[in-house]
Structures are given as C-alpha cells and as structure tokens.
Amino acid sequence: MARSGAKKRKDVERQVAALPVRLSPGGGLEVLLVTSRETRRWVIPKGNPIKGLKRFEAAAVEAEEEAGVHGKIMPDPYRRFDYWKRRRDRFQFCRVDVFLLLVREEEDDWKERGQRHRAWTSPRQAFDLVLEPGLQSIFAELARDGHVAELLASDEAARRRPEAQARLSAETGNA
C-alpha cells in the first residue's frame, strides 16, 4: 500500500498563526513581524489553538495579544509551515496553520507590549529577518502573490464605501 506524504503524526503539535498584512501608503504590501519573547527572533504572532474558538479565531487572538492588531481574519489557512520548537528537555515538531489578517487597527498599547517588539516590513525584508525556513518560504511566495494586495485593496474600498455614501448623503441633505 502506498504511503502518503501527508501522514498524520501523533507527536505533532498543532499551532495557529496570524499573518498580519496591510498596504503601505505607497500601495506596497507590508507584513507585521513581532519578536519572540525568549530568543527575540523575528516571527509572526502564533500559539496554540484555544478551546471554544475556531482555529482562525484563535489566530486573531494571538495577533491581538502579541502584536496589538485587529482586522479581518481569513477563515481558511493561507499557508502552513513546520518547525522544531525548543523545549527544556527536547525538541517538539510543530505544524502551524497561517491565517491572513487584513489589519484595520493597530493599538498603541497591547497585552504583550512590554515583552515584544513589532515592525512592519515588506515580504522580501521579512524573508531576510526570520530564521524558520518554512516561514521564509511563505514570505517568498507572498512577495510574488498579487492576490493578497488585491484582497487588501478590495477590503479597504469596501470599508470606505459606507463612509463615502454617508458623506454624500450629508452633503446633499438626503440623510
């Protein structure tokens, strides 16, 4: 019987991550990186699934707690990556589902502000800053993926539409 490359391992720790994205003032795609608490490496907000929440909702909670950002989280994983997590006495194999977060709001103060730094950067710069090869491959692909920038532009236009309609109604007296 042929063995599948997607074999399910019992010793795999499943995690969720948010990939916060936005358009720069010049229209280029930017991603938000945060530092890890212990090693201070550049990563994306990530953690374990949260009981009672869907995986994408848990990823949004991680983004809020670790980076202080809110927005529209996509319900389907954008990509997935694997890495080895260092524990005190061993290494743990982890598989991370990455969900796009179209950032709409950035807090000045957030839960883990004193423990992390955050930085907006291009996907190409993010590729150079992160150490996990799986995460690097996501940034390399993101740099070539015009769909994400289109998604952001569409989301921005949809959010501004009600504001523009309200402004027009006020100006014309058709409130």
In the CATH scheme, the class would be Alpha Beta
Measured on Cα atoms, how large is the radius of gyration?
18 Å
Number of helices: 4
Percent of sequence in beta strands: 25-35%
State the low-pLDDT regions, or none. Answer: 1-6
Q: What's the CATH topology label? A: Nucleoside Triphosphate Pyrophosphohydrolase
The coarse silhouette is globular
Order of helices and strands: EEEEHEEEEHHH
What is the end-to-end distance? 69 Å
Major sheet attributes: 8 strands, mixed
Which structural class do the helices and strands define?
A: alpha+beta
Helix content class: 25-40%
Query: What is the annotated CATH architecture?
Result: Alpha-Beta Complex
Number of DSSP strands? 8
Structure overview:
- This protein has 175 residues and is an alpha+beta fold.
- It has a single domain, classed as Nucleoside Triphosphate Pyrophosphohydrolase.
- Helix content is 34%, strand content 31%.
- The chain has four helices and eight strands, in the order E-E-E-E-H-E-E-E-E-H-H-H.
- It has helices at 55-67, 123-129, 133-144, 146-172; strands spanning 13-23, 29-35, 42-43, 46-47, 69-73, 79-86, 91-106, 118-121.
- Strands 1, 2, 3, 4, 5, 6, 7 and 8 form an eight-stranded mixed sheet that branches.
- Helix 2 packs antiparallel against helix 3.
List the keywords:
single chain, 175 residues, alpha+beta, Nucleoside Triphosphate Pyrophosphohydrolase, eight-stranded mixed β-sheet, 4 helices, globular, hydrolase activity, hydrolase, NUDIX_hydrolase-like_dom_sf
